[in-house]
Amino acid sequence: MITLDLNTTRLSCPHYVPISEPLFIYTNNQQGPRTMNKLDRRSFLASTGAITLGAMIPGMGRAADGGFTSTVFGGVWEQNYRKAIVDGFEAATGAKVNLQLGSSAEWLTNAIVNRAEPEIDMLMLPYPDSIKAIMADIGIELTPEDIPNIAEIAPVWWEQYKKRGVGLDYASYGIAYRTDLVDQPITKWEDLFRPELAGKISIPDIGTWGSWEMLVMLAKLRGGSEDNLEPAFEALAELKPNIRRYFTSSTDAMSMLDAGEVVAVGMTTNIPPYALIDAGKPVDFVFPEEGAMVGMVSYHIAEGAANPELCKQFINHAISREAQEAFCNAVIAGPVRPDAKLTGKAAERVPALDQLTLFDWFKIVPQMPMLTDRWNYEVSL
Amino acid sequence: MALTDTAPPPQAQPAPRKPLSPAWLTLPGLCFLVFVLLLPVGWLMALSLKPSMPGAFTMEGDWTIANYLRFFSQPFYYSTLIKTLWVSALTTGITAVLGYALALIIWTASPAKRGWVVLIVLSPLLVSIVARTYGWMIMLGDRGILNQALLGLGLIEEPIQIMYTAGAVIIGLVHVFVPFMALCVLTSLEKIDPKVPEAAMTFGASRWAVLRRILLPLTVPGLASGLTIVFSLSISSYVTPALMGGPRSGMLTTFIYQQFAVTLDWRFGAVLVTLLLALTLLVLTSILALAARMTAKWSK
């Protein structure tokens, strides 16, 4: 599910103006003062000024076509999302869904900064940005009366967002390791502390997906909790000799694993390691015995969105059984609907929801600035 | 006479319109710069003087220098600033030496070979950062070509850790910035009459003397341009340090991203931006002032 990273994501440019031929020809006319052919100076200044102003006013014309603007992760994820969910919705309603590429932090910032007149009508956000959005009061209340399929999903994927968001699909975090470079298989989080793995493992850098899950998991391993993360820093100090590098994206982590620069990557989602496994690499992915964390992507409709009813229709479509099965089987992710059936690789590789751990993000998000500072001072040095 | 009587009365000739200065053509570009660069940067600088508050993007609150005090009271941040300066300076210095040598090779190459040499020099710019980093991993990694060769020759017993260190960051940055330096120096070299160094050598000057006393002084403008471009790009680089750096090689840019995207503490992030910008401007101004001093006699 969550395979996006900043280094591989394409950024959209809504104001791209294709220029296929020169706008004007500038000549130094010897008969008089300098003149321009085809386009005089005033017109040139006026048009370039207009282009400048146009570039400075983002979002103009937004949703003018009766559709709405939402967000999407790039690459294969986007292709599957369009094919399994968006195309069917557009065909059924005739509405246009404008999907904006980028990063979730960028979308959230956009939503907060443009709160009065949102540029993004419906945000699709992963943890922790989805929780930050709820805490920043971004998103209207979503009810089963407006979105009937909410009644069909696992309640946690609506109630967790204080009924101001609805989940789309879940991913699971675990450990990926090189089977040819370890003496004994890795089966649990505690294995990452083994002395023979000195300088050979990678865990997420703070702020990277999986980093907050790692902190909470380490805290819980050492008797802590979301309210008491002190044991996590003690565990990190203990783990430090084994860290080769803190990875900054899943691509980054898998590159290191593939090249053998590290032998184990802690707290990665299942999809990137399975890509290596499918390519024939000697890699295994395990859900650790102590528990695996769950990741979720969710929808949030901005207050003041251009077409809130259309956004609600879209969410209802995205969490319909047909769309859930088509999408989750394509991206190998867990559906929010218990009645959605996984087949093939998805059935083999997606764990049941009750095998995964969800922690209280609302306790973690307020601590993030403090945790980040502490990570910088104590862990990254 | 009749013709004279019926002829229209002479009209006053309109005064010839004074041509506008071509400088006006820069107006759209200037407007663009003011609105998309100067105003946002000025706004960020002002934001740095507001109390730190995650999630706050507006100018609410009293003016304060608390964010700057936080920066300078915490060794982590100012040591990162010094490390960033050091890595950028070293990258710029190494790039200057390699770029100058490459520019000399291009300048002295025959016209037939010249195009090929330029293409090779520009090649790092043709590869994406991810592919380039992966290439360096194959070369410099623990199981990479270099370590395998050294191990095979018996020169080392354990692989040398090069990837994910400050050294790897410098190698990655130098690799991609050398073309900028080489092209800047080449521009200056092209203005030198080849007969000048030839004449010097005729009078007995050694190659080193020609380089030190003729070519280097005459290429100061190109060298200064190259130094300013490479230093600016190095100190503001984000992706290469993020991908090739290790736990202890974080540059200030990585922490700017962290403040803006992770903690949403724009106000403290704005402090980092302001200080990095001030440091960059200080170094660039020093380079340009030095270059101006060295070439001052040219205009006399």
Automatic annotation (TrEMBL), chain A:
**Record-level GO cellular component terms:** outer membrane-bounded periplasmic space
Q: Please give the biological process terms from Gene Ontology that the record holds.
A: thiamine transport
TM spans, by residue? none
So which domain of life are we looking at?
Bacteria
Give GO terms: molecular function aspect only.
thiamine binding; thiamine pyrophosphate binding
Mind listing the UniProt keywords for this protein, alphabetically? Signal
**Listed CDD domains:** PBP2_polyamine_RpCGA009
What is the protein name given in its UniProt record?
A: Putative spermidine/putrescine transport system substrate-binding protein
Gene source species:
Alloyangia pacifica
UniProtKB/TrEMBL annotation, chain B:
Where is this gene product found? Cell membrane
Against CDD domains, the record matches this protein to: TM_PBP2
Where exactly are the transmembrane stretches of this chain? 23-46, 85-109, 116-140, 160-186, 214-239, 268-292
Which SUPFAM superfamilies does the record cross-reference, listed alphabetically? MetI-like
**Cross-referenced Gene3D superfamilies:** MetI-like
Residue ranges constituting the ABC transmembrane type-1 domain according to the UniProt record: 81-289
Q: According to its record, how does it sit in the membrane?
A: Multi-pass membrane protein
PANTHER family documented for this protein: ABC TRANSPORTER PERMEASE PROTEIN (PTHR42929:SF5), INNER MEMBRANE ABC TRANSPORTER PERMEASE PROTEIN YDCU-RELATED-RELATED (PTHR42929)
Q: What protein name applies here?
A: Putative spermidine/putrescine transport system permease protein
- Please report the organism this UniProt entry assigns to the protein: Alloyangia pacifica
| Lineage, uppermost ranks | Bacteria, Pseudomonadati, Pseudomonadota, Alphaproteobacteria, Rhodobacterales
